[in-house]
Amino acid sequence: MLLCLRVDAGEFVESETLKQALIKCGDFHDFVSLLVRHRVLVPVYYVLREKILWSLLSDHIRTDLVGRVRSLQLRQMKGFRALIEITQVFRSKGIEHLCLKGPVLSQLIYRDPIRRQFGDLDLLVERGALSKAYFVLLELGYQSNDGGIVSQRESDDPIWDSLYHIHFQKGEQQIELHWRLSRNETLWNVQASRVFIGKQEVTIAGETLYTLGREHLQLYLTMHGSSHCWNRIKWLHDIRMINSCHPVEHSLPRSESQNSQLGELRDELIQRLWPVSLGTSKAREVSFIGKLCLRQMTTGKEISSDMGNMLRRSVALLILNKGLRNKLRYLSTLLIWPPVYFRFNLPRWASFLYYFLGPLSWLTNKLRGN
Questions:
Q1: Which residues, listed in sequence order, are joined to residue 207 by a DSSP beta bridge?
Q2: With 70 as the cut, is the pLDDT of residue 76 above it?
Q3: Which of 59, 26, 62 is nearest to 45 (CA)?
Q4: Same domain, 87 and 50
Q5: Is 153 among the domain residues?
Q6: CA distance linking residue 271 with residue 276, whole number of Å
């Protein structure tokens, strides 16, 4: 898989090296499961086709791969159409927004909005436009268990500091409406209003969309991957692809600087997985947090369904959040479960109860198998 992603990023790998690696692959179904797990099935599929390795696969495996890729890209095409619909309505309502990752990132990397795998659609609006965007999505038929009282919240409600997006769903399509880039702002100190100023334009199928500027985009991808303990190799590969397609020269003000340890961790993992010389990855010493991330990558389960993964992610973020105050703030965000906050409109003097209701409700849902 890593060799195929080297080729996908434009790096030279001899066909014979790829061929021998593919032959040595014991159970190809396990290999496909790994690609699905790390959301890189489509790019690796194209590498197998373009490097004349397709003939090494059995008819059954080829049929299975083609079916999986077509099904996935059909679903992503529906997601792209949903994004265009929402963008057009937001624009007509005067709601300024940015598209985070998804089809826009795929277009930047591959010049194809559905080649990079994505699940939900992430949209960023400024805090002042949140209520308006929320009701527009409801009018478009999306439903949300979050945010039913979004327009009633006080702007200085302290619990808002622990939240950053609202979930919506219509059929299989899911939306995350963000008013902040992350709850872990100590990892990257930047206001949403600043990223709107530096936005970049992306044209897809005649439609003009906007996303983060190049510098902000790379920092955002680094922050997002780190906040998930780099659970999916796709997130590291995104950064390698962005660097190969759109080199960035950082020129952001000091006030928007990112925790330097995030960049160091990102570079360490990239060098470990894709060393300059093939076969030298084991020669490098790996930091403790790097080992946590590598363990996350090798597990077969997703973060939300495995307690071990959640624990590793929490430990990694405690390390990345510098200073006792920031560590305590991060721990407090773990206690705020958005569905509880949006479901119960407690008076401000009783807002401390959310820190108890969140874990209790989360545990109850887990015991019920939800």
A1: 204
A2: yes
A3: 62
A4: no
A5: yes
A6: 7
Helix (H, G, I), strand (E, B) or coil at 253: coil
Tokens 């992603």 -> residue: 5
Q: Are residues 83 and 20 in the same domain?
A: no
- Whether residue 6 is contained in a domain is answered as yes
DSSP secondary structure letters along 130-159: HHHHHHHHHHTT-B-SS-TTGGGS-TT-GG
Structural domain containing residue 5: 1-57
Contact 223, 187 (CB under 8 A): yes
- Are 307 and 207 within one domain? yes
23 and 147: one domain?
A: no
**What is the distance between the terminal CA atoms of the chain, rounded to a whole angstrom?**
33
- Quote the CA–CA distance of 11 and 19 in Å, as a whole number: 16
Q: Which residues contact 173 (CB under 8 A, 6 or more apart)?
A: 78, 79, 82, 120, 121, 142
In the chain, the number of structural domains is: 2
Residue 188: which of 270, 291, 257 has the closest Cα? Answer: 257
CA 233 – CA 39 distance, rounded (Å)? 8
- The count of other CB atoms within 10 Å of the CB of residue 255 is 9
41/99 same-domain check: no
pTM assigned to the model:
0.87
Residues across the chain = 370
**How do residues 178-228 score in pLDDT, each as one tens digit?**
888 877 666 776 777 788 988 999 999 899 999 999 888 988 999 889 888
Backbone region of residue 141 per phi and psi (left: phi > 0; alpha: psi in -120 to 50; beta: other values): left
